[in-house]
Design goal:
The two termini are 12 Å apart. Helix content is 37%, strand content 22%. It contains 15 helices and 16 strands. The strands form 3 sheets. The protein has an 8-stranded mixed beta sheet, sandwiched between helices.
Length: 401
């Protein structure tokens, strides 16, 4: 989009609990002009990596909050590089924000106004680690880039199509009606990107899929006729698959048992969210690469961590193949899903009778590709996810309306 002779850009901001990831897009949200990350917000030192025109710049500085962080990234976009990606912040026509929890209030991306901000704020209790950071980024961008429209893209929105039997828990109705206790699902921006990309690759506008976003956070999604019908995450991102530090599924009575045994609620929560998952099982690291290396070296705890991680994925894959039947494709994405041929091989081992046959050489390749053989009745794909691109596209669509 052009405004006079000034090319208009779209900035995507993803504020995490202690970081800001960002991308700058041009040419209708299809050209990436810059990408960067600010790590260590709130600390005395942080690493700020910025890449523009194939030139990577790293610096260390102090950023105490998100206001300073957004200010630093705008500074990087206007001053780093020869020439920098933009010369004037006014070139940024809109800012797209990832918002983790939209509850049942938001079923699609939306232009940000005061009412939207208040609604996101009211949902902070459902995502206490994420929504406050997302809001801080929104407020900082509105202050520093007053001429730019803001758009919120919700991780939960893709799962607004879940039927009640998939999102309701079998608990007293009052819990749902008064406290919002239900399954919402997360990683929806990634799963939606994968579903839309798979539709193009399969040349089928409304495919049936099982999408697996496997990384430090991990989730599975069943897609039928192009829409989400089930997902592994629940009211919070804690439910479902084994993750880097999150336990995934456990018997709820474990919490009662630990409380009655004298363990404080704060310690139980820490154990489930911050000290569980691969870290809890391996006793060493939440990083799958490290855990996998230790497993290959003969560490029994690391081997158990890998086996449990794979077992949980296979459990959900089997269930979601039923939900998506007849399934057109299984899609792997995320840091582990895209990069670990070992995990893909282990997850799919012995599933030939279900129509999933892996081509070993393709599985060890790189980039977006089909990794199933001609004998496989269900395609198997590796698709690198691009949440920022989807956010930029939604932002462009909304501001151009």
């Amino acid at each position: 989009m052009d405004n006079g002779r000034v090319p208009m850009r779209i900035l995507v901001i993803n504020c995490g609990s202690s970081s800001i990831k960002y991308k700058l897009f041009g040419r209708g949200a299809e050209e990436t002009l810059a990408v960067g990350v600010i790590e260590g917000i709130g600390g005395k030192r942080l690493t700020h990596r910025h890449r523009a025109a194939d030139r990577r710049v790293t610096t260390e500085t102090e950023v105490g909050d998100y206001d300073q962080g957004v200010s630093r990234l705008v500074e990087a976009l206007t001053e780093w590089g020869s020439p920098p990606p933009i010369t004037d912040p006014a070139e940024i026509a809109a800012v797209g924000h990832r918002v983790v929890h939209g509850g049942d209030r938001f079923s699609e991306s939306t232009v940000i106004d005061r009412a939207v901000i208040e609604a996101i704020e009211s949902l902070e209790t459902l995502a206490p680690l994420h929504n406050p950071a997302n809001l801080a980024g929104i407020r900082a961008a509105r202050e520093l880039l007053p001429g730019a429209a803001g758009v919120a893209v919700f991780d939960t929105a893709f799962f607004s199509t879940l039927p009640p039997h998939a999102y309701r828990y079998a608990v007293p109705a009052r819990w749902w009606e008064e406290f919002g206790v239900r399954r919402y699902g997360f990683h929806g921006i990634s799963h939606r990107y994968l579903a839309e990309r798979a539709a193009l690759l399969l040349d089928k506008p409304r495919p049936n899929l099982v999408t697996l976003h496997l990384g430090a956070g991990a989730s599975a999604c069943a897609v039928r006729d192009g829409q989400a019908v089930d997902t592994s995450m629940g009211m919070t991102p804690l439910e479902g698959l084994v993750m880097g530090t999150r336990s995934g599924d456990i018997d709820p009575a474990v919490v009662f048992h630990l409380l009655e045994s004298g363990l404080p609620a704060s310690e139980i929560r820490q154990g489930l969210e911050r000290k569980g998952g691969l870290l809890g099982l391996s006793g060493d690291s939440p990083d799958f690469r490290r855990v996998s290396e230790c497993a290959r070296a003969g560490d029994p705890s690391a081997s158990l961590a890998v086996e449990t991680f794979v077992h949980r994925i296979r459990r959900y894959l089997g269930a979601f193949l039923v939900q998506a039947a007849p399934c057109d494709a299984v899609v792997f994405a995320g840091g582990i899903g895209e990069n670990s041929h070992e995990v893909r091989q282990l997850v799919l081992a012995g599933l030939e009778s279900l129509g999933l046959v892996v081509d070993g050489s393709r599985n060890r390749g790189n980039g977006e590709r089909r990794i199933s053989t001609g004998r496989s009745t269900t395609d198997i794909w590796v698709i690198p996810t691009d949440e920022e691109l989807l956010i930029a596209r939604d932002t462009a669509d909304l501001i151009h309306q």
